[in-house]
């Protein structure tokens, strides 16, 4: 069993402690630390192995947006999952732009947060179902990819793979669904990242929402 090392970042001690207690009941979760802002989180992960960060948005000194940015610049492989409120949509937009793996509302059930952690660690986008359309539409206001899709020269296969990534499928699952080898899927994803000038699967998933491939 692979153990997921989680860092909780929130300026409210009760929230940090509550999340730690609940998440620690899962055998595959190891809460390795708790911090009160993004700068503390960066200093912590420089000294400790972390797979994913549960990051609040509104915090003093270094908020979740800046925290996501500075952490992803230095530790690209660490996932950042935003825990926020519905009113933070502009902050969410910025956090996604800087590489966050998605967001969940603070009133989410602990089961949903647990499942979100597992999905994010696999490289898929995590979006709270209640407000997905609202937030994704606000993200898409900045650029309208649907009118420019031809300029990226994406093949039908690449468009299909983009859609399946947004649907949360792994490389192996996509390969099985399309009757292709996993290596072929990896090569296609590399081509997609190059064509779209993106960094990772999360950004591919966001792109899929923007152009209407995923709902």
Write the layout of secondary structure elements.
Layout: E1 4-9, H1 13-23, E2 29-35, H2 38-45, E3 52-56, H3 64-74, E4 79-84, H4 89-97, E5 102-105, H5 110-121, E6 126-127, H6 132-140, H7 156-166, H8 171-178, H9 182-196, H10 201-211
Modified residues (4-aspartylphosphate): 56
GO molecular function, one term: DNA binding
Domain Response regulatory: 5-121
Describe, in plain words, how this protein is organized in 3D.
Residues 147-212 form the HTH luxR-type domain. The structure is a single chain. The chain is an alpha/beta fold. The chain folds into two domains: 4-134, 3-Layer(aba) Sandwich (Rossmann fold); 153-211, Arc Repressor Mutant, subunit A (Orthogonal Bundle), CATH 1.10.10. The chain is built from ten helices and six strands. Strand 1 (4-9), helix 1 (13-23) and strand 2 (29-35) form a beta-alpha-beta unit. Helix 3 runs parallel beside helix 4 (89-97), helix 6 packs across helix 10 and helix 7 (156-166) crosses helix 9 (182-196). The longest helix has 15 residues, at 182-196. The protein is globular and about 50 Å long.
Helix and strand composition category: alpha/beta
Give the overall form.
globular
Q: What Rg do the Cα atoms give? A: 17 Å
Give the SSE string.
Answer: EHEHEHEHEHEHHHHH
Portion in strands: 5-15%
CATH superfamily of the largest domain: Response regulator
Estimate the helix proportion, in percent. 40-55%
Top-tier CATH class of the largest domain: Alpha Beta
Q: What is the architecture of the largest domain at the second tier of CATH?
A: 3-Layer(aba) Sandwich
Q: List low-pLDDT spans.
A: none
- What is the name of the CATH topology of the largest domain? Rossmann fold
Domain count, please report it. Answer: 2
- The separation of the N and C termini measures 32 Å
Count, helices: 10
What is the number of beta strands?
Answer: 6
């Amino acid at each position: 069993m692979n153990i997921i090392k989680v860092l909780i970042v929130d300026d409210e001690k009760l929230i940090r402690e509550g999340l730690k207690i609940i998440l620690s009941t899962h055998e595959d979760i190891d809460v390795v630390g708790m911090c009160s802002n993004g700068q503390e989180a960066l200093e912590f992960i420089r000294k400790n192995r972390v797979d994913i960060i549960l990051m609040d948005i509104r915090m003093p000194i270094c908020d979740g947006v800046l925290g996501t940015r500075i952490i992803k610049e230095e530790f690209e492989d660490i996932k950042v999952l935003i825990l926020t409120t519905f009113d933070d949509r502009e902050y969410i937009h910025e956090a996604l732009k800087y590489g966050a793996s998605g967001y969940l509302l603070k009133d989410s059930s602990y089961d949903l947060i647990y499942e979100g952690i597992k999905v994010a660690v696999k490289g898929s986008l995590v979006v709270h179902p209640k407000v997905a359309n609202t937030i994704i539409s606000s993200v898409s206001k900045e650029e309208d990819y649907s009118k420019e899709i031809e300029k990226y020269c994406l093949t039908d296969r690449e468009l299909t793979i983009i859609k399946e990534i947004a649907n949360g499928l792994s490389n192996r699952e996509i390969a099985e669904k399309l009757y292709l080898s996993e290596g072929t899927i990896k090569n296609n994803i590399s081509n997609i990242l190059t064509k779209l000038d993106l960094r990772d699967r999360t950004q591919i998933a966001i792109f899929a929402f923007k152009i209407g491939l995923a709902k």
